[in-house]
Amino acid sequence: MKKIVLGAILLGLSQTVFATEILPTQVPVPKDNPLTEEKIELGKQLYFDPRLSSSGTISCNSCHNVMAGGEDNRNVSVGIEGKTGGRSAPTVWNSAFYSVQFWDGRAPTLEEQAKGPITNPVEMGLPSHKVAVERIKSLKGYEVQFKKVFGGSNPVTIDNIAKAIASYERTLVTPDAPFDLYLKGDKKAMTEEQIKGFELFKTVGCTSCHTGPIFAGPTLPVGTGFYMKFPTFPGTEFDKKYEFSKDLGRYDQTKNEAEKNMWRVPTLRNVALTAPYFHNGAVKTLDEAVKVMAKTQLNKDLSKDEVKKIAAFLHSLTGKFPEQKMPHLPMN
Ligand code: HEC
Ligand code: HEC
To answer: What is the dihedral of CA 113, 114, 119, 123, to 10 degrees?
Structure first.
């Protein structure tokens, strides 16, 4: 497994070997959690339900607003009692395409990820998963649905809560961005400026990392992340100003020296909607984020015009958001 990742990294850095692709409409689905309509609906209710937090005020949607770009547009998120963590909320749109979750890839799947925030003291703050399960069980409307979806004598479990939420998240896909339509043959879908920006995106070297269907690198097996050092060229004015090197990224999980300041390459789909940028949300505009990337990852200074074109291209990655019906939550 390690060898494959290393190979991908080496190949990725040496040249553009992975192509950019149309966003598939089918997401990968794990064998032990098949998608069903009832499960998706149940997961949607749980996703919007603030009763999964200690104060009864914070739901997944508080920090990952699916009526907008799938995050909170804050530098760092605000959870129960106004508490803040150290990282910016990534978008949940298209997160089903990742082979690992979180900025540092510490969760392999959406199922594993979904269990975290419920008991995270600065997010939803419940004392334990047991308490979460008891709260859901106490609501008959939920119990009936869990029985129907999962069966068995004890269907309300933290694993099943996570499975339902993950299933809803697998519907959060935004196809048919101007870029996709362009690749499908509609040459008018992108503006001249965006097309030039796409060319620059490739020639400057952004595609050595941001490729594949969500521009987060090649598709790898579940649990294997596509990680890169950020900053690859440390000590620049940007690094100092925005304190990128402060958070050690994967190292905090693995304690492996070689993984200091390593981060999963994030998606660029809908990136025009998800300011502020980077793991610490330190950069306010997309133009500045493009400048930062060129300097910190490729040691290149882009002209104002080049930055503008690349940013215009990134705007062409904003997809179509599916119509959604607000869920009705069980009240007893
Ligand atoms: C208080 C704000 C907050 C709440 C509430 C919250 N999240 Fe998050 N979420 C975050 C932050 C911040 C991160 C990034 C943390 C990191 O990478 O270390 C994150 C990461 C994620 C990711 C990973 C996305 C990616 O690109 O890797 C997913 C998926 C996600 N959250 C889903 C959920 C779900 C489902 C819930 C509800 C059960 C939830 N979140 C509740 C703030 C929040
Ligand atoms: C060597 C790999 C690499 C290269 C080359 C690279 N990036 Fe990145 N990019 C990353 C990583 C890793 C991150 C996440 C950094 C973090 O915040 O921890 C990132 C983050 C971003 C973000 C912010 C995403 C967000 O949600 O906050 C943007 C925008 C971006 N890159 C655009 C570009 C552009 C444009 C180029 C070319 C000028 C480029 N990248 C080149 C690896 C790379």
So the answer is: 90
Q: Which tens digit of pLDDT belongs to each residue from 250-276? A: 999 999 999 999 999 999 999 999 999
Determine the residue of 54, 75, 113 to mutate for testing ligand 1's pocket, defined as the one with the most ligand atoms within 8 A of the Cβ atom: 113
Distance 57 CA to ligand 1 centre (A): 16
What does the angle CA 68 – CA 69 – CA 73 come to, to the nearest 5 degrees? 100
Q: Which of 283, 281, 303 lies closest to 294 in space, CA to CA?
A: 303
CA–centroid distance, 152 to ligand 1, in Å, is: 30
Distance from C-alpha of 114 to C-alpha of 60, rounded to nearest angstrom: 9
What is the C-alpha separation between 310 and 298, in angstroms, rounded? 15
User: Which of 238, 297, 300, 318 to mutate for ligand 2's pocket (most ligand atoms within 8 Å of CB)?
Assistant: 297
Q: Which of 43, 99, 96, 33 is nearest to 70 (CA)?
A: 96
The finding on whether 232 has its CB within 6 A of some atom of ligand 2 is yes
Q: What tens digit of pLDDT does each residue of 190-239 get?
A: 999 999 999 999 999 999 999 999 999 999 999 999 999 999 999 999 99
